[in-house]
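Narrative summary of target 7.
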Amino acid sequence: MLGLLRRRIQRPPGSASSGHSPVISMKKMIFQFVKGLLTSQNQFASGGLLLMIVGAIGVYLRSLPMRLCSWVIYQTTMVLTVTDDDASFDWIKEWFLEQKFLKRVRWLDLDTSLRGEEAALIPAPGKHRFWYCGRPFWVWFSRKDDTQGWTPRRLESLTFRTIGRDPEFFKKFVREVVACHKRKIRLASYLYAYDEAWRYVCAYTPRVLDSVILKAGEKDRLVEDVRTFRASRERYGRLGVPYHRGYLFYGPPGTGKTSLVSALGERFGMSIYAVNLTELNDRTLKTAIGSVPSGAIILFEDIDCMKAGNRRSEQGNSEAASAAMVPGEKNDPADRFGVTLSGLLNVLDGFHAPENVLFVMTTNRIEALDPALLRPGRIDYKLYMGKAADAQKIELYRRFFPAASEYEAIVFVESHFAETMAEFQGLLLSLEQEQIVEPESEETMALT
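Modeled conformation, tokenized:
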């Protein structure tokens, strides 16, 4: 048999001038070799080769129906995949809660991360079926743990499949999901914090605008300014001006700056996206701001505590001090990877600035901020929130105790010192607690 193989492989005399291509010659040799094995006197070799060929044909024929089925499914269906690092992942969960087919799902998952839902039941990981607009839908909810990064995290995805080849049907489905999301966000204001993606903060409760008491006329002017901006989109577009507006609330601690931001969000139904510059760099800041939806408030709280907003002379001193550090000592990662002033200015009014948002900054020391950060186009409205006036305290007292007269409120204000509204609110909470405890003590003494 080996001699036969050697005869087949040996090149015949004059083959170089025969004109046959090497590929055709190789195919001929393989065919002749296989033919020789099958017709040879070696029954083990010919029988084994024949058995191998028959087995391969059987395996192929067995897989043919599955291949045909997969090909038919591929040609007649469409697939849509959404991962949990995209904002629409939560939007689809919200859409699930409004669907009637959810009542028929028996395999459920408890989710407390959805807006406005303390505990929502959604389809659990696995495969589910439902009908939408007269078509069958299959959805696979996948969940797995990613241990490849610095910190392990859970990865989730939703994959939808339906019959048809026209993407317009999926576009209609997506439009309905988006409309559901917009209805939700118009009803209330939510808080988001950035952690590789924007995450909904479950424990947040927005302030009511009436609970934030400013000096006479300040609140009305601010609300009117926001209302005018939100109604001026066409005018901004006609003038070619970027459609966003910047606000700066500054003053001593405890004057209600953050509470005012929360109240504005609740008043206009705008969600708040809180940015912590110490946890970001220029690249991640651009990604975070770029993924904020329109109609939102982007909050930079205590911007004076973040090096990106400081005056450039202070930044230069900080960088020089960092450069003078002794090699081998531990350096603060924020010094090396923090947001630069240039990166911050770019997301405020550069090419990466989003449209239809309010930029709101709060600070205790406006003099520490770089002038480039305060110019119009970046900060368009400034509001100083200083020490509490007597009129503010009286209004807050009567809000806590509606049955009290104005004279009682004036007497309390004059007899209790408080510099800020936060301090005065603390006094009122203590007084209210005492009034609750006293009747309980009297009832206890009566029973004994």
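The chain has four domains: 2-11+20-75, 76-187, 209-384, 390-447.
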